[in-house]
Structures are given as C-alpha cells and as structure tokens.
Amino acid sequence: QHPCDIVPGTFDSWMQGATSIDVVVVGGGASGLSAMKQFQGGKRKVNSVVLLEAQDYLGGRVKTVRTSIEATGKTVLTEDGAEWVHGGRTTDLYRLAKKLNGLAPDTKTWNIFFNRNNGAKASPLGYNIRRNLMKQCETKKIITPYFQKPDKGFGQCFIDRFDQTYKKLKAPAAEKEAWYFYNEQMVNKDQGTDTWLNISARDALNFRGADQWDQWKNGYDTLINYITKSIENSKLKLNSPVCRIHWDNESTDRVLVVTKDGTSYLAKHVLITVSIGYLKEHRELFTPELPTTYTKLLEDVHLGVADKIQLGWDKPWWGNKYLDLTMIWTEKNLPAEQEWLYGIMEFLSIHQYPEMIQAFITGKYAKLMEDLPEETVKSDIMQLLNSVMSKTLQKKGLSAVPEPIFFRRTTWGLHEWSYGSYNSYVSPVGADNGLKTRQPLAKSVKNSYNKQVLIWGGEALSTTRYGAVDGAMAVGKTMAIKIKNLLA
Ligand SMILES: Cc1cc2nc3c(=O)[nH]c(=O)nc-3n(C[C@H](O)[C@H](O)[C@H](O)COP(=O)(O)OP(=O)(O)OC[C@H]3O[C@@H](n4cnc5c(N)ncnc54)[C@H](O)[C@@H]3O)c2cc1C
C-alpha cells in the first residue's frame, strides 16, 4: 500500500481541470528548494512555477527533530538525516553556513574508548587500519587497476591490502578478524551499502570532500529555512504527493502532473528531485513508462540505507566528556534475532550534547533493525551497551547503564518517500555498463514533440558530491539554470 495507489479522477478530468504552468518541481528537499531559489532569483526569473512536496515539511532527508524531554524540561535537537557540512570549504553550502554564523565550533573533548564487544579493552593499534587503508584505496595509482574492466569493487582494494597493512601496524593477531569486520562495516557505513564489493571502484574515487565535520549549531534546518525564505510561500505546496506524470501526450506537448488529491498541472518542464530509491520503487509514476535507456541506468545505481539509533541521559554516565566509543566484535555469538547488532561499530556523542549518543547502522543490518519493533531495538541496544561498557560501569560503581530518558531510531529504508538514506552509489556492473560519471543519469527525457520535458535533479546526479547536501543543492541550481535556458 502506498498513498499514491489511488488518485481520484480520470485522465480526461485531470486534463480538463489542469492549471497551465511553466515548471513543476517534484520534491522539496535541498535540491528542489535550491532550484526554486534559482528560479526566483537573477535577471530571468521564472514565476510560473510550483514545488510539490509529498510530506508535511520541507527538507526531505534534511530533517531536524526537536524533542521536549519530560524528565529534564529541556528540548533536545537531533538530526534524523544530514548532520555534517561535508564537501570542503569552497562550496556554496559552507559559505552560506559561515555567512549565517550557523556553524558549531568544534571544541569537543572526548572520553575515548576502544572496547571489545564483551567489554575488554581492544588495542587502538587496530583502529589505525581504517585510516591507513582508506588513504591507500583513495589514491589514484592504487585504485585505478580496480576499475579496469571488469570493475572489481571498492572493497576489493581493502581486502587485498588488509593482511599486509595489519601486520605492519603490529596490532594483536587475536583481534585481526574483528578489525577486518570493523573495517568492512565502516566502508559500508560511509556508503550505506550491504557489501563493499558492490561499490564501483571508479565511482568511489570520484567522490570528494567527506572528511569535514562541521555541524549546524541550531540544526540543519537552518539551511532549509534560509532557502525557503527566498521563495514565495504560495509556490510551495506541502502534503502534495505527485502520483501520476503523463509526459508524452497526443493532444499537447506539455506534461500532465497529478497529485494525490487529483489536483493537476500542465507543465512545460518537470524537475524531478525524488530519491533514486523512490524512482526505482515507483516506476508506475510515469505514463508512458520511462525509456529503457533511462530505466537501464536506474538498474546500475542504488540508494544506500543508513540509520541512526540515538540515546540520551540527563548526564553522561561514562565520564564528564563527549563519548567516543569504538567497538569490535571479537565474540560473535548473538542469537539470530539479535544479529542486526553486528552492524554497530561505534557510539559517539552527538551535536552539542555530551550526554546524548548515537550509533550508525547500515546496509543489511539496518534493514534487519528496521523490521523490529522500537522497544526490541531499544532493549537490544541497551544490552549491547551494558556488555561493551561493562568495565567502565564497574569502575563507576554502576550495576547497569541507567535507563535512557531519550530514545529514537530512524527507518530510512522503509521510508515511503525516500526508500533509503544516502550515497546513491554506482555498482561495479553499472560502471562497466558505462556509468563512469553521473552525466548519463542527468540526461533529460524528450517527448514525441522533441521537447525536453523531464529534467532530473537530486543528490544522485552529482558526480563528485553524490549523497551529500551540497551535491543536492548544486544539482538543483544547475538544473534550474538549464530550465531557464530552455524557457528563454
Ligand atoms: C541518515 C542520513 C545521514 C546523512 N548525513 C549526511 C551528512 O552528514 N552530510 C550530508 O551532506 N548529507 C548527509 N545525508 C544525505 C543528505 O541528506 C541528502 O543527500 C540530501 O538531503 C538529498 O537531498 P535531495 O533534495 O536530493 O533529496 P531529498 O532530501 O530526498 O528530497 C526529495 C524530496 O522529494 C519528496 N518526494 C518523494 N516522492 C515524492 C512524490 N511522489 N511527490 C512529491 N514529493 C516527493 C520527498 O518527500 C523529499 O522531501 C544524510 C542522509 C541521511 C538519511
């Protein structure tokens, strides 16, 4: 069941009742909103435009949550989606964040732990393997052989170099397998993938600027609110899922766009910024079906799944600083129903709160977690924390981890307007099929009148910044300029 399954009306009634318009933007995330800002600015403004957003808020995968905590009377700010201003210091996003004085100063001091899952100390030497291998596998000379046809997958580079690098680090042999697994999971965490072998080695090399950790001090929605302010309110329609797009019609060279309640528009161009996950899941959005040249491309790119599990207390029980806990799985003896926990590799304090912590979980483990009731996830994760922090609890004279006063987990894989989280990644097969950059995905679709009617937007189209907010913004801006040129 999906909200778009049933739409009142018929093709004829939608045609008759349609509002003529130059542009419809589908989706009000960072990409769609940046396009709208571009339409509203500059010398050649586009006024005949509307943005249709399925949900009741703008921002999409930028989703700041404010929760009032009864026990403390405080409101805490967490991010369900984007959290860091990645992308380097020369992007529009970074410049804007500076201009708005929106960045949180990075003055955190950390209580650092390296623990085995049973609570014993792990050797920090093994930890260095990740940075070491990342450095190697992101070096052009080293990774290039991995994407000579056939593309062997980004993970293969790590697999080939693990043994030798681990030996050089002189890390304990007893932890070797656990650090290997950690390393694999951390690559999967960055990409949102099930397996590091399904990421094209070439595509991974295209990516730029993930090594930056600035945050928004008052929430990522500072960005969304700022962009939205520059857009006329009446042009932004919330709770308006686009359910049908008739893009090649006999009677008109325009596109018929229909929302869930049967409201319709006849547009010269439609800018589609929904996630790749949504596009793959809902091909029936388009009538006629999209050209096979485009659907074939969709087969070769996937949206990763990454979720967050967040817990909070009134004060940090592990010490008085921010928590930085790296854990490795030296004992893998969980019952089948708890195997999702193997996806947890670290707990870190979040945002401005030392007493609030977060774990990422990705790929197949995230999907297992999403299928479980929230209460089960909470009790499983508490069991894990009790085990991995058992020595610290003893030292602090605590019999168990105190009951959290805040708990939240995301379910981006099941999300009916996203079907995933971040990093729309190209598979090795996709790279071999010709997706060497994201350019083919950005090729607009023409109708029988030879008009470029479907224009693609969203993070997935950025070759160097896919999966990130600044990439989504840049694509939105570029596509709006393209549409302005088409309208001129
Ligand atoms: C857990 C998580 C952590 C992340 N961390 C970071 C980070 O630290 N830094 C970073 O830069 N990026 C991060 N990202 C990625 C970043 O959030 C996204 O790349 C970016 O926000 C995508 O923007 P977008 O506009 O392309 O897509 P979206 O934000 O997905 O916007 C698409 C919009 O389309 C709407 N929509 C879908 N279907 C329809 C329909 N049929 N009709 C109308 N509307 C529809 C959706 O509701 C949505 O609002 C993270 C994402 C997640 C989920």
TrEMBL record:
Where substrate binds, per the record, is at 360
Known EC number(s)? 1.4.3.-
> Its Gene Ontology molecular function terms?
primary methylamine oxidase activity
Q: Which UniProt keywords apply?
A: FAD, Flavoprotein, Oxidoreductase, Signal
Tell me its cofactors. Answer: FAD
- Give the binding site residues for FAD: 31, 53-54, 242
Name under which the protein is recorded:
Amine oxidase
Q: Where in the numbering of this chain does the Amine oxidase domain appear?
A: 31-480
Q: Family, per the entry?
A: Belongs to the flavin monoamine oxidase family.
Report if keyword Flavoprotein is assigned: yes
Enzyme class per UniProt = oxidoreductase
Q: Which InterPro entries match?
A: Amino_oxidase, FAD/NAD-bd_sf, Flavin_amine_oxidase, Flavin_monoamine_oxidase
Natural source organism: Halocaridina rubra
> Pfam families this protein is in?
Amino_oxidase
